[in-house]
Amino acid sequence: MDKSINPLHPETPSQRNVFIVTAFLGVLFIAGTIIFGTRVLLVGAIALAVSAAIEALFAYFRKHPLDKSWMITPLVLTLLLPPTLPVWMAGVGSAFGVFFGKAIFGGTGRTVFNPAAVGWIFLFINFPRYMATDWLNPQTGQSGPDIPLTELAAGTFDYAWNDILLGNIPGAIGETFVLGIIVLGLALIVFKVIDWRIPLVTIGSAFALLGIGHLLMPDTFAQPLEAVLVGSLLFASFFVATDPVTAPVKKLNRVYYAIGIALITVVIRTFSAAPEGVVFAIVLMNAIGSLFEDTEANVETEGVEAT
Amino acid sequence: MISKAKRVSDYKQLTKQLPSVRYVDPEFVYLTLMNNRCTDYTLEVEEGDSVKVGEILGEKCGSFFETPVYSTVSGTVEGVVKKLDQNGLEVDCLKIRNNFKDETHESITDRPDAFIKAMSKEDIVDIVKEKALVGLGGAAFPSYIKLNTDEAIHTVVINAVECEPYLSSDYRLIMDQPEQIFKGLIYIMQTVSAPKGVIAVKKTKKALIEVLERECERYKDYDIKIAKVKDYYPQGWENATFKEAVGIKVPVGELPMKYGLLGFNVSTCASIYEAIKHNMPITKRYLTINGDAVNFPQDIRVRVGTSIRELIKLCDGYKEDINKLEVIIGGPMMGVALPSDDAIVTETTTSVLILKSTEYKEEPCVRCGSCVYSCPVDITPVSIMNAVKRNDKKSVELLEANKCIECGLCAYVCTSKIHVTDYVRKGKNLIG
Fold first, then answer.
1. Torsion of CA A141, A143, A148, A150, to 10 degrees
2. Residues B16 and B127 both lie in one domain
């Protein structure tokens, strides 16, 4: 076996990180399959296959070696999708995300927006009927328009803590297994694959914002603890927002970036028609966050020229 | 692996416990006639002339400095040849055949202690200038400029941290000649009328601290303290040493003299002692030969001008074919890889490392931020690298690339094995 593609002997820490993240996403994917049924496997397989094809084509035409992190984008996308989605849509989302989110920018290390988030937004805007209204409830086996977040807003939220932690509630494929996400997310921090600032500050400030809002206006803002645990926020802040390529590099800028994600998420969840907003928040903050470092330089430029 | 690297693997165990070997009588010595400051030279001797230790052979000339070249052996001049210096550049060297008599020149005479006590600042600065003493930690900054400061100095800091991995030449120097360091420090304190002296040493080097503290007892009349600093890289960087040893934070880019501090490397301190007490230029120094591809790593006391090839033979040679190895002068973090081993020991050569070549394939940068977290001067190496790649001079300037001390940590921690330090160095050259 070629040593360079053997995941157990990574040549660089980057490869090790890619391997760990891919493995953890795989665990969540399998958990999603157990919760929502084997159909999930098909969704993931289509997304992976389309991504592999596009990456291979790009590697061929650009004369690069195949990107070793090619599995991450389709897996993240799959975990953000509802389990009832027609399988071909997963392929479309994966194709759009990998092509327009990643490949045309030049592949790994050059992306501006998180490719999985790009694919998810494309699907959300084009197929809202499948992306936002049709959720499978693993407890009853029935599909319905409600997810825990909308029920929280409507005041009909009624799930046992047991079910919330083990993922036995409606939601996207990878977002419901709360216990697994927390354990694997903390493991990523312990293994120093991701920077602790981004997920912990995102979750912490979302909790704080919702908490303050709930105290002042209990009718408008959802209960903070439940609202942080259900929905995509937990998964996205550990596995999507932490993508280092699209996040700022300086410590303080990463904190601002995380606070921005939490703020936009809370605003979208509370005041817009969409029940979930974390993916939009991440893409918006990708755009702003990467500029943090440059804006510092720009501000100084003006100062230098003035003197 | 997003991490702030503070510790780097040490590897000093290989050599620091071994007694240093004396190898002071090579058949030939090669004395550099040029360096990066001086590109021209004049010679006062001709082929066939016999010279003595400490005799002036010529002068290095440059735009700012003119430094005399001293003979380090007694023997006969055999003409000018080309050899590699510590920066890996081919320079003209004066070849001298050793006659093994070790005769010293008439000018090399000891000064009585009472005489030294009465010397003024100008006298000492003149001696240091005349003997061409430079910082031996590697930067080769002329010592007399430091000593000639007009600022009021309250503390002289002797830097014995030696934070680069593999290096133990300063360690051996202190173990072998601690009294020289104390006397040198006292001379420096006398020169700049500083009341306090501090010797900064890593707190993990217990043996050194023991030796220095015992020596400290003998010089109770002077306010000299041993500062035990933490075992971090780059603790030997002057500003980091000041911060830990004295508690004064000197901003990057400002002279420490402004803050009442004066720092000298421990070898420089010993050479100042030699110059003032014995009127001797630098003729010998401690050198570490280390690495995983040399058969017998050790510290050697060598004469300045010895051929490195000869010293490697003394260490039982290479483990592998030379083409599969890297010969590095200086430490692994900041040193320079030589194109061949046909180099010589100059006064600023601290070590020669022989390492097995490893080829790393660079992966794309994922902006993980490790280099930013690890940078001791708080600049953004990754942004500088990107600016250098697009040849954006203004951004490189605004990102303060000139602050970089080239410690090498950004390349050390890079998760994608990118040679970040090289890019930052290019950036520094770009903005001149």
1. -160
2. no
ipTM surpassing 0.90, yes or no? no
DSSP element (H, E) containing B155 = strand B155-159
Q: For residues A132 and A75, what is the distance between their CA atoms, to the nearest angstrom?
A: 19
Nearest to A285 by CA among A103, A29, A112, A102: A112
Instruction: Tell me how far apart the alpha carbons of residues B197 and B184 are, in angstroms, rounded to a whole number.
Output: 11
User: What are the pLDDT digits (tens) for B134-188?
Assistant: 888 767 788 888 888 888 899 999 999 888 888 888 888 998 889 999 999 999 9
Q: Do B417 and A304 touch (CB under 8 A)?
A: no
A108 assigned to some structural domain: yes
Amino acid letter, B89: L
Q: What is the pLDDT of residues B210-242, one digit of tens each?
A: 999 998 888 888 899 999 988 888 888 888 889
Helices and strands in chain B, H and E counts: 15, 17
**In angstroms, rounded to a whole number, what is the distance separating the alpha carbons of residues B403 and B406?**
9
Q: Measured between beta carbons, which residues in chain B are less than 8 angstroms from residue A241?
A: none
Residues 262-281 of A with CB under 8 A from B: none
Q: How far is B259 from chain A (nearest CA, A)?
A: 27
How many independent structural domains does chain B possess?
Answer: 3
| Residues B286, B270 share a domain | no
Q: Is B380 in Cβ contact with A293 (below 8 Å)?
A: yes
Residues in chain B predicted with pLDDT less than 70, given as ranges, are: 1-6, 63-64, 138
CB atoms within 10 A of CB B380: 25
In-domain check, residue A71: yes
